[in-house]
């Protein structure tokens, strides 16, 4: 794995007079094992950048490499995006899209099962993560029975379970209290170290911003890099 590398990424929506240059110039580098923050005001291009990173939309120009694979070169797709999303990227979205007819443990165990691991091993791995996220007591519950905070923690477990080389998280701690937000950050840092994962976290959360060693700011479609406080997570 070689983390995430983006050079001169641009994204234009539409054409002609109504065209919007959502990303004008994005340079980013996240090493394996590193957790970085992405911060910017509303309309600055954060969602567009996350969608480009997740190969959900195609950028207009630039170069992007994920986990050692070139995804876009001068705006051209050069790989199988479906396989990429399945094997290389863990998504942690703000709204937890859990599968309503599977209980909590199977929502999390589904991805390793689909990847060919046994049901027993997949559930064991899922329970380990649910324990680390302090929701194991809800393992047999259905998603509709969970609080917002519990759903979010289950969604985080699902994003991490396949140990992808890249994790993209959109406001993962927004609905959580301070203690749980820190627990999530601790787990993301542990994942990053243990599995050499490159993690990007889009956030406004003042509770977690001081924990980043490095932060990318995006303003009007242009990124800049800044040192963060890198405060230890207690
Ligand atoms: P953020 O996530 O930081 O709020 P976005 O990436 O959503 O920013 O939006 C960046 C700019 O691109 C904004 O000006 C927004 O209006 C525009 N934009 C976003 N999505 C589209 C779209 N599908 N079509 C046209 N313009 C869009
Ligand atoms: P959290 O801090 O994780 O969001 P809450 O304090 O909101 O947890 O919820 C405490 C308990 O109440 C949880 O076990 C949760 O399952 C239950 N609960 C909260 N909201 C709902 C809801 N809308 N539907 C069913 N159960 C709920």
Descriptive terms for the model:
binds adenosine-5'-diphosphate; alpha/beta; nucleotide-binding; five-stranded antiparallel sheet; 234 residues; transport; six-stranded mixed sheet; ABC_transporter-like_CS; ATP binding
Task: Spell out the blueprint of helices and strands.
Blueprint: E1 4-13, E2 20-30, E3 35-39, H1 46-53, E4 61-66, E5 69-73, E6 76-77, H2 81-88, E7 89-92, H3 104-114, H4 119-132, H5 148-160, E8 166-170, H6 178-195, E9 198-202, E10 214-219, E11 222-227
Parallel strand pairs: 3-9, 3-10, 7-8, 8-9
Antiparallel strand pairs: 1-2, 1-4, 4-5, 5-6, 10-11
Helix pairs in contact: 3-4, 3-5
Bound molecules: adenosine-5'-diphosphate (2 copies).
Helix proportion: 25-40%
- How many strand elements? 11
SSE sequence, one letter per element: EEEHEEEHEHHHEHEEE
> Beta-sheet strand percentage?
25-35%
Biggest sheet: strands side by side, in what order? 7-8-9-3-10-11
Return residue spans where pLDDT drops below 50 for at least 5 consecutive residues.
none
- What bound compounds does this protein have? adenosine-5'-diphosphate
InterPro entries: AAA+_ATPase, ABC_transporter-like_ATP-bd, ABC_transporter-like_CS, ABC_transpr_LolD-like, MacB-like_ATP-bd, P-loop_NTPase
Pfam family, one: ABC_tran
GO molecular function: ATP binding; ATP hydrolysis activity; transmembrane transporter activity
Organism: Stakelama sediminis
What would you note in describing this structure?
The structure is a single chain. The protein is α/β, with parallel strands linked by helices and 234 residues long. The chain is 31% helix and 28% strand. It has helices at residues 46-53, 81-88, 104-114, 119-132, 148-160, 178-195, and strands at 4-13, 20-30, 35-39, 61-66, 69-73, 76-77, 89-92, 166-170, 198-202, 214-219, 222-227. Strands 7-8-9-3-10-11 form a six-stranded mixed β-sheet. α3 (104-114) runs parallel beside α5. The chain is globular and about 55 Å long. It starts with a strand and ends in a 7-residue tail after the last strand. The mean pLDDT is 91. One adenosine-5'-diphosphate binds next to β2 and α1.
